[in-house]
Amino acid sequence: VYNLLDKISPARPGGNEEMSKEAIKHYKRATMLHPFKFALRNKLARLYAEKGQYEDAIHELKEAKNISPSNQAAYLNLAKVFMNDRERYEEAEDVLLEFIKRNPDNKITDIHSLLCFIYTKETKWEKALGQSIKIIQIDKEDLEAHKYASMANFKLERYDDAQRLCNRILNLAGEENNTYNKYAKEMLTLLSEK
Hints:
mainly alpha, 11 helices
């Protein structure tokens, strides 16, 4: 209830600080009463992260990860907290790779998408391309993965592959003038100059 009151508080965008403190206090109490309840740890971590209390969020998400090692939510949220806390991309990458190592049979595109985003931010184009390909193998119509793959190929000067992927984006996106369609057309224009 306190969390909800904080969200709808007229004092937004920062929220109602008293309501936030109460929400955190009650969630902490709930985690003491139910220390192995994943949902409570995950929610408390989200509250901490929203308030910029990243170290507390990291602690709760590590606990959540230990409670349910096959639940990707804790890994994704922990990686996002690391990224929001001074762009700690290497730690975020380690968390996501840990999930893949612990759960090799899980085909979860969200994990690979976030890794792809991290590698793009760090301009690790070969790794970004590898993650994009993994996503496309899982979901052949994932437009975001095609976009990242074409971008990585362009940066790696593999222009034929980039062009092939852009044409695939246009086929998948159809005639709608959406962001992917627009991106592919702009990229094809760039590629025609190469």
